[in-house]
Amino acid sequence: SNSRSSEPRRTGGDSAGRRKTGDAVVPGVPASEPPSLAEPTKARDPLPPKADQQGPANVSPTGADYNAPPETNAQQGRYLTTSTGVRLGDTDHSLKAGPRGPVLLQDHHLREKITHFDHERIPERVVHARGAAAHGTFVANGAAAGISKAGFLAKGVETPVFVRFSTVLGSRGSADTVRDTRGFATKFYTDEGIYDLVGNNIPVFFIQDGIKFPDLIHAGKPQPDREIPQAQSAHDTFWDFVSLHTEAQHHTLWNMSDRALPASFRTMEGFGLHTFRMINDAGETCLVKFHWKPRQGVHSQTWEEAQLTQGLDPDFHRRDLADAIEAGVYPVWDLGVQVMPDNDEQTFSGIDLLDPTKLVPEELAEVQIIGTMTLNRNPINYFAETEQVMFNPGHLVPGIDVTNDPLLQARLFSYIDTQLSRLGGPNFSQLPINRPHAAVNDLLRDGSHQDAVPGGVAAYRPNSLDGGCPFTASTAEGAFIDIPTEVHGAKVRELSESFEDHYTQCRLFYASLGEVEKQHVIAAYTFELAKCYEENIKLRQLGCLANIDAELCQQVAAGLGLPAPKPTEKLTTPEPSPALSQLGGRWPVAGRRVGVVVGADTDPTVAAAVADAVRSAGMLPLLIAPTGGTFGKQAIQRSYLTAASVELDAAVLAGLAAPADDAFPARDSKAGHQPAGQLDPRVVKLFGELFRQAKPIGVLDGLDDSGIADVVDLGAPGVATGSASAVVDELTELLAQHRMWQRG
Ligand code: HDE
């Protein structure tokens, strides 16, 4: 304001003495003349381009070198400090008024340490809370270059990835080997930005429309009154929902199959599940379904193994993944696509490609391999990486787009939204594990946990102040392409009629299983339904089974002691899809764990010969002896007390394994583990379980009359006898076939 009076101005106010915002309050010092309003404002020069506009250099939002080893981004220096970097001389004693006196509130280090600790936990994921992850690389073979313009799919391009595997229903601390679907989420840090393939190990889903997801999860999670059972579908609310809501029957059938009990994350298939749309350089589109094919084979635990493992080693899958990577046995998956024409109906061979409860049999559309992923590095810090990683099916790159699958459409909303509470605000993309490796210039500003210090003044577009930056890209410059697709129709809360077929593919899946797999499915339904209290729910689910397969329905009904209902639909007999069965095939044995069981009197050179033969076949020998310590020159990995059948793929009895003087604790004999012949009861138990689990077993020459024959039928399929090298050779061959189901 121009002062019209010639009077000296009073400090900090207008002529009436009122203070104005922005005036400095300096009592007693006259203010200098304010700038005249008539003075023109001179535009300043635009700021130079920001560092991350120069090109795809790997810089974090704060300018830290993204390629620097992570430890330099976190803990530095040699001394313990406060969070503000002040060195500390003591962290074990709080500040007190005398050694026996009260603790002083002024102890900053105490308060900071405890306060931070109090807030260490963040909300766990509402689903998929329990997980394990690893870093790796994806190398494209170029086969997809003709259908997608995505840069990371071009021949030879290598892209860093981070993969998180998970169970769905259990809490963060629940066991790994429960009967459940597994998540298989892959983050590709491509040069064109993040691409997330957020899939499962089962190719179909429980619901066709995302609006039902809360219902599904409320039914599957522990019941709200007592909060039990944990990480299980074997309870009333789950079976109530899936029996009333028959579109869930297909996924449920997969959950009752061996697929829901993976032997390892390394032996799981992965499925993108939904149909996605791809576009190539010429602007041509096609529809695709993604598949991860494990080079390790697709293997499962038996239900007995899964249950034992839950108690013996609740971290079984997490440990297995980390151990394999640490041992250099890197798990490898091929990524494949089923490619379908992008027709108006979006159907293929009569299958509605927008219905997420339907799969496309591989015999109808071949899975074509477009690249290979190797997981080769364990996370350094579970929380920073595995817990804070976030995936989003909406994280797409040019060349890949979504379809109208109503389940996928709802997911596109959910995955950002959930991070706002889980990761505490909108800046989760700045967490190191979530940062893109491509340059980011997003005009997103501020918010909780803002880690970046953006330069410039123009956080908007268009602008002239920051030199017009950032610019929008043309398609040629790599802009994301929302593939233009026709949309028409009235606004309705409906699904198309083809979504009403809930049973055809249940029959397809069941008909495609081998005999032993069918027996497992029958046992699973019988077990789970027997855990329900309400008879009406069991009867209703039996009614659903009647529409899948008469034999399945009858056997489960018999197990429950209930009548088998009649089908309400005509039972069609589908053409089986052999690719849906896990049986058959030969698989690499690399990394398989072979127990080498010895007794106190065993010749150490014999044990060493077995272990060496196992090692040279690329497998991992675990020496199992009466106690820990060393055996000859070899380290003992498991004692009789800690050895467990569930962690072995096969075992060799290499020595007498005679009972030690104290090997028969009273409780063992009470539990019925009586010594067989001269063998230690724990060894008897171990081999009895391995035999029942249909795993290959070797018995060295001269041990036939040790008592082993009482628990292992030495003439049964998959039991090798002979010298160390002959036995290991035969076991290696047997392990390539995985299990000896013919043992019956
Ligand atoms: Fe998810 N899902 N989901 N989901 N999902 C989440 O995201 C959701 C669905 C899947 O390791 C959540 O960050 C809705 C299908 C995986 O971090 C949440 C619907 C498939 C993971 C969410 C689905 C998945 C999640 C929980 C129905 C297989 C773990 C925390 C419309 C194709 C990712 C989070 C990881 C996680 C919502 C259905 C796979 C709440 C609403 C179908 C592998 O956003």
TrEMBL record:
PROSITE patterns: CATALASE_1, CATALASE_2, CATALASE_3. Residues 1-77, 565-584 are annotated as: Disordered. One of its GO terms (molecular function) is heme binding. Its EC number is 1.11.1.6. The active site is at residues 128, 200. It catalyses: 2 H2O2 = O2 + 2 H2O. Keywords: Heme, Hydrogen peroxide, Iron, Metal-binding, Oxidoreductase, Peroxidase. Residues 6-22 have a biased composition (Basic and acidic residues). Decomposes hydrogen peroxide into water and oxygen; serves to protect cells from the toxic effects of hydrogen peroxide. Belongs to the catalase family. HPII subfamily. Heme binds at residues 125, 164, 213, 411, 415, 422. It comes from the Bacteria. This is Catalase. GO terms for biological process: hydrogen peroxide catabolic process; response to oxidative stress.
